[in-house]
Amino acid sequence: MNANRREQIIHMAANLFLDRGYTAVTMRDLAQELGIKASSLYNHISSKEEILSAIVMGLAEEFSRHIEQVAQEDWGSVAKMEALIAMHVDTTLDKTSALACMNREWKFLDPDSRKRYLELRNAYEAQFLAIVQQGMRQGELKRRDPHIFSYSTLSVLRTLYHWYNKEEGFSKEKIKEGLVQNLLLGIVERPLL
Amino acid sequence: MNANRREQIIHMAANLFLDRGYTAVTMRDLAQELGIKASSLYNHISSKEEILSAIVMGLAEEFSRHIEQVAQEDWGSVAKMEALIAMHVDTTLDKTSALACMNREWKFLDPDSRKRYLELRNAYEAQFLAIVQQGMRQGELKRRDPHIFSYSTLSVLRTLYHWYNKEEGFSKEKIKEGLVQNLLLGIVERPLL
DNA sequence: GTCTATAGCGTGATAGAC
DNA sequence: GTCTATCACGCTATAGAC
């Protein structure tokens, strides 16, 4: 019942799930990567579902705490979104496999975790939307459909892990700057009349 | 060996795969939805993999043909991107489940299809990037990292199916207009100095 | 073209020796 | 804490009657 061993199992599982997907990875695969037999895993974890839950739920709570904190700061809408973008980039680069698991495999969570995950995700989207609406009310943002902007922006942030390492020279700072410019300032040189 | 029955199977499979994921849907589930037994499916299709391939590959070829055609038009970069955005929105709304399968389940394609799919996807990304670079060369777009812009824009277009039906009143035209504005023109009222 | 029956295999998980 | 052995089950796919 070594706790380090447990962490090691969960970490290795996240990497395998990232590569092949939750259902395609067997307990035998996972054990083999760690140099033990599948049955030995059960001294450290109680089920495959528990591993997924351990990977996903910690991260989901982390995102929730962060947006909660940002939302109550006394900042403008743009500053808040910059902080959220930065946090997504940091998490994507530091915890790639866990983040990819969260986005792709949450449907396989046990019912309780799944319910909690969806609550957290819906709350995150609602807080993000509120920040956008704040910006539009206060004149900092153009008055557009705030839903379309929120959903499409969150889509970019949630799928960074697909491409952040596809080209050389994508540093954290460069990605953050690029995303802020593209998402917030636009790319067209002179708005078409 | 009725061809309509085959189409019916493939269509139903796409819907189930969208809901529960390719691996979680069994041939028994699929057969039951159609009111027959699992073994009867094999009079119309030869394997579960073949169903996935039929769903995914047709759509992948369709996207390729479209960007190929747009790329060789004598349009500006912005007009080309607007055409691509419109095509993504149309396809997302008209073929939601097939599109979601393509994005989420392509890893389970048989090796040949998988190889072909990745070739098509890489070619699509390269063509999109070339359109962006064209715009920057010709002064139509701001000079930014074209990779970051391409990847993040494609992320939005590829994941539309996640949210396009979350709110009432998201019509095709409204989504297209919203995306063009958000992705190309930006949301910030007055660029921060 | 659908059925029943079943082959053949891989899965998550457990029991009990060491 | 890891092992061997195994259970109980579900999976894709096939054979052959109707």
Structure, explained:
2 copies of one chain form a homodimer. With 193 residues, chain A is an all-alpha fold. Chain A folds into 2 domains: 1-46, Orthogonal Bundle (Arc Repressor Mutant, subunit A), CATH 1.10.10; 49-185, Tetracycline Repressor, domain 2, CATH 1.10.357. The first copy, chain A, has helices at 3-20, 27-34, 38-41, 48-71, 77-94, 96-105, 111-137, 146-158, 172-185. In chain A, α1 (3-20) packs across α2, α4 (48-71) packs across α6 and α4 (48-71) runs parallel beside α7 (111-137). The longest helix of chain A is centred in the middle third of the chain and has 27 residues, at 111-137. The model of chain A has no long low-confidence stretch (mean pLDDT 96). At the A-B interface, α8 and α9 of A face α8 and α9 of B. The structure holds a DNA duplex (18 and 18 nucleotides).
Helix content of chain A: over 70%
- Could you state the CATH homologous superfamily of the largest domain in chain A? Tetracycline Repressor, domain 2
CATH topology of the largest domain in chain A: Tetracycline Repressor, domain 2
Number of strand segments of chain A = 0
Termini of chain A, distance in Å?
67 Å
Strand content of chain A: under 5%
Q: Can you give the mean pLDDT of chain A?
A: 96
* CATH class call of the largest domain in chain A: Mainly Alpha
Task: Tally the helices of chain A.
Answer: 9
Shape of chain A: elongated
Rg over C-alpha atoms of chain A, rounded to the nearest angstrom: 19 Å
The greatest interface between two protein chains, and residues involved on each side, is: A-B, 45 and 45 residues
| Oligomer description | homodimer
| Assigned CATH architecture of the largest domain in chain A | Orthogonal Bundle
Q: What is the structural class of chain A? A: mainly alpha
Low-confidence stretches of chain A: none
How many discrete domains of chain A? 2
Strand count, sense and barrel status of the largest sheet of chain A are: none
Name the helix and strand elements of chain A from N-terminus to C-terminus, one letter apiece: HHHHHHHHH
